[in-house]
Amino acid sequence: MSTTECGTDLKLVKAPATAQSAIFQTAVFVRIKSAWRAIRNRIAAHPLFELDDHMLDDIGLSRRDVVTALDRSAALDDPSLLLARAARERARTRFARPPAR
């Protein structure tokens, strides 16, 4: 028997998946991807502790915002969402004119 004859016995084509298993695989992939993104963003948020208050102010955050975002989000939650919301809120109110009297 030659190697070309052995190669014909291999099943190189993947069997078609059922719709239900494809949906399940997609849902699992989305969950894993979301958890990985949250972990990666949590790791990226930790160096914000090393910045001084003036640097944090330059990016629109305070030290309290960083502490709050990391404390309020669970291990697999994304703290960057809370940090972005705090920065947007501070930017909206930072240069607002006081109400006319």
TrEMBL record:
In terms of Pfam families, this protein maps to: YjiS-like (PF06568)
Sequence ranges assigned to domain YjiS-like in this UniProt record: 34-65
InterPro entries given in the database record? YjiS-like
This protein's name: Uncharacterized protein YjiS (DUF1127 family)
What's the source species for this entry?
Rhizobium wenxiniae
User: What does the record give as the organism's lineage?
Assistant: Bacteria, Pseudomonadati, Pseudomonadota, Alphaproteobacteria, Hyphomicrobiales
